[in-house]
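Most newcomers find our protein records easier to grasp once they have seen one. A learned vocabulary of local backbone shapes supplies the integers on the structure line. Here is such a record, shown just as it appears in the course material:
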Amino acid sequence: MIKDLIQQYQKLEERIPTLPLDVYTLSEGIYIKLSIDKSIEEQKQDVLDSILVINQKREAIRNPNLVDSYKKLDACSSILNNDSNKVIDIPARVIWSANPFTLFMKIESFNELKQLPTYKSTLTDEHLIIHTNQFLNRLDSPSITEKMISMFPFVKKNDAKLVIARETFPELMSYIDSDERESLYQRTKEFYSQNITKIREFFRELPEDIVKHVKPKSAYIKLFLDVPVEYYEKEYDLYIYPRIFSKNQFNMMADGELKGIPAIDFTVNDNKPYQ
């Protein structure tokens, strides 16, 4: 059934290439785009001008002309199926984005309006710096490589897993170890290290006519670094591939293709092993 649906969808997408983004909707929140090469002080006015606000009804309240430009970035940065088990930030689940260039948090967490079990307190500035850094550390090249080779449990040695991963995903595996990714990753870490608390200050000073349209308990603050969209696409592939199957331990190669149990169709746990 899933295979038939995929084939029908692919035919439809061939006729309407923009279909995925045409039907994509942005969730409630405040969307902010930031330059990776400027301090918050240097770009404050530009940031204000580029803020998009989506209310609970998923309506664009501010800068509706920017919806399409944010859609692609958001689609490439969101957690698979909005599933808390698919977040990178486990077990805390404070950050709900899927790549180094974005930080998604509930406004009530970002604004210190809620106690967090991880810290037994609100997310203080010190906690925010530590937590952001921990999140980014999980996206460095060695960590991403480890995730990618986890897709090949039927190969025993990691060196052999790495070989088959490079054969299966040559472009992605090459990108992981590239100088361009390492440079962009380090610039991202440096930007957040120097600016994350200042971003919080900036957010708290936003005019009432911006923040009044969202509810802190349900809405997100979504920060996007202004890097070329192709990097968002590559990072999304790195996030999605190791998580697209229900459990990688059941993956296998068949007819030259990597196959596994679909996450949307099965619930697999240790008490009910797939056979």
In short: Residues 27-256 form one domain. The beta strands are 29-34, 52-54, 60-62, 102-106, 220-225, 252-254, 257-259. The chain has one domain: 27-256.
